[in-house]
Amino acid sequence: MSLHEWFGRHVADLKTSRWDQGAFVSTCTLCGREMIKPPGLEWQIRTTTG
């Protein structure tokens, strides 16, 4: 397990971020997981519901 997985620190790739349904969307530069930044909040890993 990497330190990235252990501590859960994700870094958004700001060069490839885009606007999608009222929030910025990007991917983590370390693991490639999709990230989202809702207005006024911090970047976080996008979770799916349903």
Task: Explain what the structure shows.
This protein is mainly beta and 50 residues long. Helix content is 10%, strand content 28%. It has 1 helix and 4 strands, in the order αββββ. The chain has one helix at 3-7; strands at residues 18-20, 23-27, 34-37, 44-45. It has a 4-stranded antiparallel beta sheet, with no helix packed on it. β3 and β4 form a beta hairpin. It starts with a helix and ends in a 5-residue tail after the last strand. The mean pLDDT is 85.
Low-confidence stretches: none
Rg over C-alpha atoms, rounded to the nearest angstrom? 11 Å
As a percent range, the share of strand residues is: 25-35%
The level of helicity is: 10-25%
Please summarize what this structure is.
This protein is mostly beta strands.
Write the layout of secondary structure elements.
Layout: H1 3-7, E1 18-20, E2 23-27, E3 34-37, E4 44-45
Antiparallel strand pairs: 1-2, 2-3, 3-4
What descriptors fit this protein?
50 residues, mainly beta, four-stranded antiparallel beta sheet, 1 helix, 4 strands, globular
